Amino acid sequence: MLLGDEFKTMKTKIVTIDSNNFKPDELKEAAEILRKGGLVAFPTETVYGLGADGQNPDASGKIYAAKGRPSDNPLIVHIADLKALKELTAICPEKGRQLAEAFWPGPLTLIFNKSSKVPYSTTGGLNTVAIRMPAHPIAYELIRSSGVYVAAPSANVSGRPSPTKAAHVIEDLNGIIDMIIDGGKADIGLESTIVDVTTEVPAILRPGYITAEMIEQIIGKVEYDKAVLTRVQDFNIKPKAPGMKYKHYAPKGDLTIYEGNSKSVVRAINKIAEEKLLTGYKVGIIGTDETVSYYHKGIVKTIGTRKDESTIAGSLFEILREFDSEGADYIYTESFENKQLGQAIMNRLLKAAGYHIEKV
Ligand code: TXA
Ligand code: MG
To answer: Which of 196, 204, 227, 360 could be bridged to 260 by S-S, CB 3.0 to 4.6 A?
Structure first.
């Protein structure tokens, strides 16, 4: 739920920093806020994060309050060196170490058994902890210079699409956190891949930019948490990543995914769009560079090109937010191939659509 403006009473400092060219000094105040138990939103290579001192229960408590996040949904702890990994984990299995070495800093989160240095307030009461070393220069330098382990969920109000730009964070959290660092667009645009390495065969709990194929090249077999593979809403499947159970990433409008060959999908979307428009609704359509010129009704946007799925990943959350601000009642989207990066895209789309797929 978005807080009403009357609750947004804090003065949030917004600073712009050039991700490719900044001096460590520019992050001094942000680092100080983190050390003192405050909240700073910062860019990462995946999405913007809302950071606080992960070892300070008061500070992480502020994250839950600011986001309206259920307290059983654990936070990812962000680190800037491998020494921290040793401190925060009870044991670091060989496969975990190999994945950390292969993909950190980068868009991969690993689940370990936690050490006593990680408070339960950060792990939502679990005995495991999620850890990631981000590659984004601002995120990395902020964590390093603050000297704290930075607990950071995505910097959106719970339930809204994750923020890929500072403007999205401002939309959700201005007036309720201490600082927002604007470091430009988050490159990848989808949250990190989460891999649980506490089990003999590690499992992917959330697909992302680092794919199963990339992981298997390093450690051999990897499994999927059941909840990742489901294509229907099934309340009996309890995801291992508590956050994956919530209706997530959801735009305000009613989103439906159309699946089938390209021509049939375009035809079906044009037809339903026309019907809804005639009954007075506002309609949004998500096409691709390849199809966008074939849609004739409603607000039509291209999400990117099928020739390069990273363009699609990069604009998914932004497009959902745009349709929110434009007040779309119904949103219709094409579907994407459920492999490699497409798997992460479809995972987020399915959740955003409440698993509503029309096969045509
Ligand atoms: O890319 C990202 O991962 C971004 C940036 C800011 O690093 N962060 C992010 O955090 O997406 P958040 O809180 O929006 O998503 C974290 C997910 C949630 O689904 C949560 O339930 C899961 O990670 N998680 C955290 N700790 C866990 C644990 N110990 N066991 C299983 N799942 C865990
Ligand atoms: Mg999130």
So the answer is: 360
- Ligand 1 pocket: which of 172, 191, 248 to mutate (most atoms <8 Å of CB)? 191
54 lines ligand 1 (CB under 6 A): no
| Residue-level pLDDT at 239 | 86
Distance 261 CA to ligand 2 centre (A): 32
pLDDT in tens, 62-96: 999 999 999 999 999 999 999 999 999 999 999 99
Note the pTM of the prediction, 2 decimals.
Answer: 0.96
- Give the pair of three-digit tokens for residue 308: 């390069």
Residue 243 Cβ < 6 Å to ligand 1: yes
Q: What is the b/e burial string over 202-224, where b = at least 16 CB atoms within 10 angstroms of the residue's CB? A: bbbbbbbbbbbebbeeebeebbe
Distance 168 CA to ligand 2 centre (A): 13
pLDDT tens profile 311-342: 999 999 999 999 999 999 999 999 999 899 99
Nearest one of 152, 127, 139 to 69, comparing CA atoms: 152
Residue 95 has, within 13 A of its CA and on its CB side, a CA count of 20
State the CATH architecture for 254-359. Answer: 3-Layer(aba) Sandwich (3.40)
**CB count, 10 Å around CB of 227?**
17
Using a 10 angstrom Cβ sphere, with 0-12 exposed, 13-18 middle and 19 or more buried, the burial of residue 9 is: exposed
Topology of domain 5-229, CATH: DHBP synthase (3.90.870)
